[in-house]
Amino acid sequence: MRCSLVLILALLLSSCGGAATPPPRVTEPAVVTQEAAPEVPPHATMSIVGTNDLHGHIRALPLFAGYLANLRAARTRDRGAVLLLDGGDMFQGTLESNLEEGASVVRAYEVLGYDAVTIGNHEFDYGPIGPRATPRDPGDDPRGALRARIEEAEFPFLSANLLQREGGARAELGLPSVLLERAGLSIGVIGVTTEQTLTTTIATNVADLAMRPLADAITAEAQALRARGAAMVVVTAHAGGHCERFDDPDDLSSCDPTEEIFEVARALTPGTVDAIVGGHTHQAVAHRVNGIPIIEAYSYGIAFGRVDLVVDRASGRVVDVRVMPPQRLCGAEGASPEGDLAACAPGDYEGAPVVSDARVAEVIAPSLARADSQRHDELGPTLTEPFAKQYGSESALGNLFVDLMLRARPDADAAIINGGGLRADLPAGPLRYGALYEAFPFDNRFAMVRMRASELAAMIAQNLARGGGYLSLGGVRAEARCVRGELVVSLTRDGRRIRDAEVLDVLASDFLVSGGDGAFAAIRERDPSALTIEDDPPIREAMAEALRAMRGQTLASRAFFDPEAPRVRAPGARPVSCESR
Asked: What is the Cα–Cα distance from 241 to 259, expressed in whole angstroms?
């Protein structure tokens, strides 16, 4: 033990002695390499995605979100961006939207990340907040429901051409335009609404408004946006066109050149705008007109439009334009994302499978459940085959509806309904409330018009001589003939000729008698007291009651429309012309 202690002391002493302490070992500092930031490409791809005329069909939106997710991922990889716009008529049309006056659509659009939407003519249909579609009491705001949606939305509502009738100032509904920053670029977005708005919605809700021509409004806003630094200007318009083929965007041979959005594009000076998202016509466009790419994608959420603008980042100049054909969500033409979504097979998009978005599905689920509680109620009769809607010609659906109106108001002599009021086919099988609702989603009230038979005949002649919505006729029949170059209509009831001077009580909708489609303009001018509008119930609910009284009956479409024996017989298809007869 003593030896061990001596040895330890000796060692300690030697370490503190004169021997030099070895220098510390010097190590090379660690080399930290920082990965260089990816080089920003000189060009940015701006994918403009356009939807239009959803009309409350929110069941399509989770699937649409899957397409958007894939496209946004592609643009993230190449340092571009997606601009998501809607061309209007978002709300009116389904139980799940109408029961909340469009709030369910706004919630879903927020999750989808819309950048801006424009105001469509049917955005005015709800009128004041609450069940009434038109103002009744002092203080009722005829656009109360629309204002509520604008105020609660996180995205801007746009319309640059809605004016106050008195004074001509811009109507205070949303904004005329908005300036956005995407992928380092300043992008101006302008919203405009069809000039047909004042005659294609309930007149009392827009009676104090006027319309500025679309091209004038776009030009003024575009100039203001460019002055604020916008490198690109895009228009979202509730105005549209109609084309049949989409293989070549510069081939306009399948397009109707008279459509509103084409006339607007031709009226714009080149360079005013870089692209247009359209709507309103429920048709499709994927073309260039006057150098401007225009996209429109049918209606009801079955498809979306897309145009890619390739922009030079340094100059802000568009160096390439790629206009895509309308992209159907379910692939095959005629397929719809409505109904059984599990049966829809969208396939891949932008190199990845399309997967429905659970977040969008979650936000719309309460609205769908509320609507479904009413949708499946059976009304009574069974349809042996579908009753198809027709906008511009006589149809079994239009004739069924006017007959139901007369069942609900048997004191009337005749009834008419406009083709724009027919929104969906009635499917074969037991007729359910949801199908009736979507075929006639408007909360229009009954109106009665006391008029001479000659006035009704003149109205039918005018409707035959022009295009647009067809006036289905019940209670009487009409025959049109060309007499000395003019179209003359005679009326019969139960095989008996109705004298021109005979007075008829004609049942219609408040939309028509208050100015819609111009049908009753002459009578309103002659004697406003000849027109009366009921407060309640909506025409649709009265038709539902009439159908419930038909429980157990079977209805065949040919019983309501026989092409060999139409209710309105004319010397040709609309528009009927007698010039060469």
From this structure: 5
